[in-house]
Amino acid sequence: MRAHHPTLDQMRLENVLAALSNPMRLTVVRRLAEGGQHPCGSVLSGVSKSTLTHHWRVLRDAGVIWQQPSGRENLLSLRREDLDARFPGLLDAVLANLTAEEAEPGAAPGGRD
Amino acid sequence: MRAHHPTLDQMRLENVLAALSNPMRLTVVRRLAEGGQHPCGSVLSGVSKSTLTHHWRVLRDAGVIWQQPSGRENLLSLRREDLDARFPGLLDAVLANLTAEEAEPGAAPGGRD
Q1: Could you tell me if B16 and B64 are in contact, meaning their C-beta atoms sit under 8 angstroms apart?
Q2: Are B40 and B52 in contact (CB under 8 A)?
């Protein structure tokens, strides 16, 4: 089954903000922001499959990532152009602050929400 | 009892994003972004007291608003300078996109989350 991805018109600001409001998902977004397609299993480590599935779904449903079937797994990529078109400046602001925050001591990874 | 407000160091990006990920709270933030202090009861209408209390707490705990006692009620204001200092560009990006989104047809108010 091909996963549902919202069109630009279907993307909602509050859903994108909610998708970005979790440390694990922010880690995913920062990783995918490096560009390219990444196999699901390579983006986060030490996380159960059900937790991964949950995070992919939240990110995908909000319009933050593409999740494309490829053989027995899925490839993930950031919908950067779509996000930039729909919510100009938002992803850049989040990524810039994410990088700054991670440079601080005491930044703790978070769990499923 | 004076409500807790996080210091700049205590503000976390994911908490601010979560606080902003709700349509009602976005409405509050857009209203407070006009400047000044606003009595709690004047910012959102048609919402139960418990729902209001919930939203003020989420916004306050994340560091998005000041909640100051004044007589029998609280005055709310946006911690704009703090947010801009801690997460440069983030609030501006959210507010700009919020204004753009609200100009679209089909923007629906949301409930408690």
Answers
A1: yes
A2: yes
ipTM: 0.88
Supply the DSSP string of A84-112, one letter for each residue: HHHSTTHHHHHHHHHHHHHTSTT------
Contact A92 B93 (CB under 8 A): yes
Distance separating alpha carbons of residues B86 and B88, to the nearest angstrom: 6
Dihedral sign computed on CA atoms, order A53, A58, A63, A64: negative
pLDDT digits (tens, 9 = 90+) for B39-52: 988 898 899 999 99
Q: Which single residue is written with the structure tokens 């979790």? A: A22
- Of the residues A13, A61, A102, A104, the best mutation for testing chain B's interface (the one with the most B CB atoms within 10 Å of its CB) is A13
Please give the model's pTM, rounded to 2 decimal places: 0.89
Mutate to test the interface with A, among B97, B98, B102, B113 (most CBs of A within 10 A): B97
Q: d(Cα B57, Cα B68) in Å, to the nearest integer?
A: 12
